[in-house]
């Protein structure tokens, strides 16, 4: 069966056809062109300890009034358009280099401190149960004085629903803290969701591991390679986050309160744990691949052993048949009326005796 048929049978043909290119085809020297979003949705959560205003704005321009109102404002923009991003950056005094990063594609997670703005860019991860793939969405978070602006690519999903629930509750800590605590909470929820994705991927790894331990099939290596690609996505997103969160921990910006620093340290600890878990999964995949190769070699050795035994058992019959088939006039038992039966008996007895000897020596 051709390899393409294996992939179709496993539902992994799309992974090997496009997945490798999607994961590895990143060239920082070529400026990618981002397609303009078909629709842009703008949500605002404007709050303090006493009140909360939440609304969806009809257009991006209306965000300007939340720039300086002595309250904490979270402006979440779903869908990226160059004109909208430039408008927001101009009105909120955000450097144009940050605007370029927001509009970038396949950017490495990073944290920058430009003028009076703290900026971080990273990916939110999701696990696609149908395709068993790790999907990602780039999110940019801009922290300024009393405001946080987040730019997302996808309006249909994110990991901030628990944050919205906390904002609705006046007794939660976030309602009584500054914008830096809001930024920490967003980073913390993104990182926590990484563990959910790794848990789902870990379940897939365990299934493949049990399958290989029970019986190695010709599809096992394909599944292993597919899972290794998804681990590469995780590694690419978790490793740079150490540097990103560490930037917040060691920043001396006035936008970050001293009491918030310990919370960013907690996120850093989670990132370290996530990175270690990814490495553990990677080691498991290497062990699974070695187990697969060992099982294949073991099965081949078993086949070769059986063939060697059969060859050995057939050798006496071949020798006896060859001797009595020689063209000589005088051969023992050649003209004996029981000669044929004696030869056949020897052909059966000698292999059985050899088989008993092999078994006694534990050769099989």
Using only CA atoms, what is the Rg? 34 Å
CATH topology of the largest domain: Beta Polymerase, domain 2
How many separate helices?
A: 9
Number of strands: 7
Helix-residue proportion: 40-55%
Task: Please tell me the total number of domains.
Answer: 2
Basic shape: rod-shaped
List low-pLDDT spans.
Answer: 1-12
Strands side by side in the biggest sheet: 2-1-3-7-6-5-4
Biggest sheet descriptor: 7 strands, mixed
User: What average pLDDT do the residues reach?
Assistant: 84
Q: How would you summarize what this structure contains?
A:
Helices cover 55% and strands 15% of the residues. With 364 residues, the protein is of the alpha+beta class. It has 2 domains: 3-295, CorA soluble domain-like (Beta Polymerase, domain 2); 305-361, Up-down Bundle (Methane Monooxygenase Hydroxylase, Chain G, domain 1).
SSE layout:
Elements: H1 3-10, H2 13-24, E1 41-47, E2 52-57, E3 72-78, H3 82-91, H4 96-102, E4 110-114, E5 117-128, E6 133-144, E7 147-152, H5 161-168, H6 179-214, H7 220-250, H8 261-324, H9 339-361
Parallel strand pairs: 3-7
Antiparallel strand pairs: 1-2, 1-3, 4-5, 5-6, 6-7
Helix pairs in contact: 2-7, 3-4, 6-7, 6-8, 7-8, 8-9
Explain what the structure shows.
With 364 residues, this protein is of the alpha+beta class. It has helices at 3-10, 13-24, 82-91, 96-102, 161-168, 179-214, 220-250, 261-324, 339-361; strands spanning 41-47, 52-57, 72-78, 110-114, 117-128, 133-144, 147-152. A 7-stranded mixed sheet has the order 2-1-3-7-6-5-4, sandwiched between helices. A hairpin with a 2-residue loop joins β6 and β7. The chain starts with a helix and ends with a helix.
